[in-house]
Write a structure and sequence with these properties.
The protein has 109 residues and is mostly beta strands. Helix content is 6%, strand content 45%. It has a four-stranded parallel beta sheet with strand order 1-4-7-10, with no helix packed on it. A four-stranded parallel beta sheet has the order 3-6-9-11. Strands 2-5-8 form a three-stranded parallel beta sheet, with no helix packed on it.
């Protein structure tokens, strides 16, 4: 339940995750003026086993996977972009191939 705001210019990432990360939950955060709310770096051991849930992303995208395999669920987030493909660094199908799953996210109308 934190806020991340790029005042005056965008943060590249609100949260940068890499290394030997396990059991990570990012829940009910607000990301404003971040190029990406969350960025994945290189992981040890197959990824973070993360849940990104009920976050709000304004003036930015939700996830930059960096093309890295990860075990993650992106669920119930509110995103300012009009489509899911505008909310991530790749298509949902591509991200699912990396081990990232999606459920119940809300996009701009």
């Amino acid at each position: 339940e934190c806020g991340f705001e790029g005042v005056g210019s965008d943060f590249d990432s609100g949260i940068y995750v890499q290394g030997a990360t396990a059991n990570l939950t990012v829940k009910r955060c607000i990301f404003r003026d971040c190029t990406y709310a969350i960025t994945h770096g290189a992981f040890a051991g197959g990824g973070p086993d993360a849940i990104y849930q009920e976050n709000t992303v304004l003036a930015g995208k939700m996830l930059d996977s960096g093309g890295n395999a990860a075990v993650a669920l992106v669920a119930g987030n509110w995103l300012q972009n009009a489509t899911n493909t505008g909310s991530y660094d790749a298509t949902v199908a591509t991200l699912q191939g990396q081990g990232i799953e999606f459920s119940g996210n809300h996009y701009s109308e």
